[in-house]
Here is the input.
Amino acid sequence: MLIPDDVLDGEGTRLTIRRAWPQDNGRLIIEAVEEDTGRLRAGHLDAGGTVTVTPFGEDPALAGLPAAVDAGELLVHRFDRRAVVRTDSAYLKLLPPRKVTRVVTAHATAAELIAAAGIATPRVTSVDGGTLTLSTVPGASLYDLGLSRGGADSGTLTTLERAWSGWADQWPSFITAPRGDAAALPSYRPEDEVETLTTWMVRCLDFGALPVPDDTLRSAVREAAGRLLDGTPQTPVLSHRDLHDKQVLISGGDTGNGTLGLIDCDTLALAEPALDLANLLVHLSFREAQGLLSARRRAAGERAILALAEELSVSGDRLSAYALSTKLRLACIYAFRPRWRTLTKDWFHEAV
Here is the structure.
């Protein structure tokens, strides 16, 4: 199924598709934006291309969503799965009731572990049915600090360099934080990374989403899997597992000083240190390809990451193996986002 750039809802309102997530039944969950109002809408496309979009702020699986959108700004809405709303003083995470216990437990585990490293992270302050209220984390994200603004690099580049330095100084405290009962954390092995990448490859093949030949995609994934599995894994450490520049916050506003904050920590696991570093490194290259990050700002982050990799004795082979896997995975994920479909073809060929 070719993912359309836009669709019409039942009222005839045109919606620009922002993201899509493939499902096993040939259906796509979509997140779209109303062209006239900018409001976020969610729905799905069935295997025949028929679109169904829910009214704004409604989802039968998320009972608390209407009240939540009355209280703040809808930031994320993945139909039937989750939504995130930002209020003046907190974030509201909306989930199907069956998922609440697992997510609350994951947040509690993350908060306990990360607090031991002196790093700020969101805490669940209340639970009301399927609505979780999360505390805010102070600071600006490395993504926001790095955004290109009119080509002026001098002052903002200095701020960004200080922010990256702050992250690099504190990251060793994160990966070595006391774990208590390590059994509470899942292990994420090279085999798991291969499985994740393979899953995204199959999704792209099933939907014809990535504009490259099928055999070329399969060959690239085999190459990445071989590098991950044939190398010598390093000792697992505490890992975020979905680390990128939007997840890392540095307090102190424009000064770039202060403490480290980390969000979306419910995927914590024990994994090779190369996993997080490669994910962060590759995301910077992708931001540059998207036109969101200048070459100088990307290089500032890369210097900090590579210097830290050397400090942590992360081998070049392991960093390279996880970087290739991340590049291919990003190509597959963004192939389901119409705005970036053309970019993913060039990005893929550059990666391989």
